[in-house]
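REVIEWER CHECKLIST
Item 1: Sequence provided? yes
Item 2: Single chain? yes
Item 3: Sequence as submitted:
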Amino acid sequence: GQEKLSCNPRKENGTHMVLCELGNPMKAGAQITVDMELSVSGLEDMGDSITFQLQLRSKNSPSSTNASVTVTVPVEAQVAMELRGNSLPATTVLPVSWHKVEGSRRLEDHGIKVEHVYQIHNKGPSTVSGVTLRLTVPHQLGGRTLLYLLELGTEGGMSCTNPPGLNAEQV
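Item 4: Structure as written out by the authors:
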């Protein structure tokens, strides 16, 4: 029949172990199947697999069947990323006859300020590193300036590469 095992973590000679009592007494010639589910934390730096040493030991007289077996389990990180964004102001209407003032370094002479804010959220369950976000902004339309890219900033330990033409007129 199916029974739940009683398992206890233990440390022996610097080795972390989980000791499970399978049965006492066990009948001679008994065959058993054990399915175990292990929850192991801190696997971010383990590489692509984790190795377990499994051994069946008897408290009875020494036996040559006390050999151990190595089991290697692949480690796979799962993560769900979410990108959120908005523009401030949400809507901008440009006058039809508006023209920028050539040579001016004043922001108002180049158009209406629109700020785009993007947030990357890790919804887990694993941690992430080395995430790359490539964002393409249409800055020209029909050979004319649509959006003048003024600056790029980040928060939260991220770094960005400035796109070509960022604040080309040094506004």
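Item 5: Key structural point noted by reviewer: Residues 6-74 form one domain.
Item 6: Recommendation: ____
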